[in-house]
Amino acid sequence: MENGSSLDASGGPEHSVSLLNCIDLSSPDIHNSVSLLKQACLDSGFFYVINHGISQEFMDEVFNQSKRFFDLPVSEKMKLLRNKKHRGYTPVFDEHLDPANQIHGDFKEGYYIGVEVPENDPDWHKPFYGPNVWPTADILPGWRETMEKYHREAFEVAKAVARIVALALNLEIDYFDRQEMLGKPIATLRLLHYEGRISDPVKGIFGAGAHSDFGFITLLATDDNYGLQICKDKDAKPQQWEFVAPLKGAFIVNLADMLERWSNCTFRSTLHRVLGNGQERYSIAYFVDPSHDCLVECLPTCQSQENPPKFPPIKCETYMLQRYKDTHADLNSYNK
User: Fold this and answer.
1) CB environment 79-90: b (16+ within 10 A), e (fewer)
2) Is 191 helix (H, G, I), strand (E, B) or coil?
3) Angle 50-52-57 from CA coordinates, rounded to 5°
4) pLDDT category, 2, cuts 50, 70, 90?
5) Does position 229 have pLDDT exceeding 90, yes or no?
6) Strand partners, 30
7) Predicted pLDDT of residue 327
């Protein structure tokens, strides 16, 4: 990994730009892809994915539809507040990702869209399954159809990435494809809009506070504005932050805490944050986690007599519920 230089989005000292490995999903050289991904997972837990099969025209349409939603009056958006199934609108300050260093919650608003599960499904009662919350077609015609299509296509990209992750961990290529893992996943699309505010880390003001993602892997599509930063060594004093450059047509992929736990800390879930530079910024995150009942326990290839499991087994549902509870405003405060 090499570093260039760039102005800090907050107008402060310069930060470097992290030049991440780039995985071409259309490449026939799977061994090279595995090597690049493994290096990235050991180094920073972040990498780009290109030639993933989602057209640029459709990506542009998803961003346009996202902007249409966030342009609605606040009164309309508040009718679609996030419910107990973690679907719907999240207002500015809803998330408090870094309470030790933030004076407010995040200066961003969002919208959660999960896997659509009808009420007659036997798993409907589970916390992260259920019907989505949708704007009405008269307000945003075609919006639901666009987001449902994107949800399906992004999951296919995530499965392709998961297969390379499996090979990089010396597992069978279809290890994570199994029914109890990604057969009925908790897969969540989240539209994000950062207000045109300037972040000031010294004063505890952030677009998104420093955090690591909860689950398995995250696919992130961004507009052309800088904002995302990563910190490869969270224990360093002071912490060193590097920008991740937007790359047209690519996903920025990062490993999340559950995969770090699964891999016995072989692969890294890296601290990241978003700084605002006064420009509005839009991004689209796609969080991929295994099924509710998946037992997350140390992978067979990541343990030995000299390196025993560092964490006890835990059910995915239990783990995810605790993480959401820790970072979001109390659901009961505005949704029964």
Assistant:
1) ebbbbebbbbbb
2) strand
3) 95
4) very low
5) yes
6) none
7) 67
Helix (H) or strand (E) holding 18: strand 15-18
Evaluate whether 315 touches 125 at the Cβ level (below 8 Å): no
Count CB atoms within 10 A of the CB of residue 310: 12
Where are any strands of DSSP class E within 108-184? 108-113
Indicate the SS3 state at residue 128.
coil
Helices and strands (H, E) in the chain, number of each type:
6, 16
- The rounded distance, in Å, linking the Cα atoms of 102 and 147 is 32
Q: What is the CA radius of gyration of the chain?
A: 19
pLDDT at residue 333, as a whole number: 40
Distance CA 20, CA 39 (A): 10
**In the chain, % of residues over pLDDT 90:** 74
Give the separation between CA 141 and CA 76, rounded to whole angstroms: 15
Spacing of C-alpha 50 from chain mean position: 17
Please state at what angle helix 143-168 crosses helix 56-70, rounded to 10 degrees. 120
pTM of the predicted structure, to 2 decimals? 0.91
DSSP letters for 40-63: HHHHTSEEEEES-S--HHHHHHHH
Q: Are 22 and 50 in contact (CB under 8 A)?
A: yes
Q: How far apart are CA 131 and CA 147, in angstroms?
A: 14
199 is written with which tokens? 């972040």
pLDDT for 157-171, tens place per residue? 999 999 999 999 999
How far apart (Å, rounded) are the C-alpha atoms in residues 42 and 45?
Answer: 7
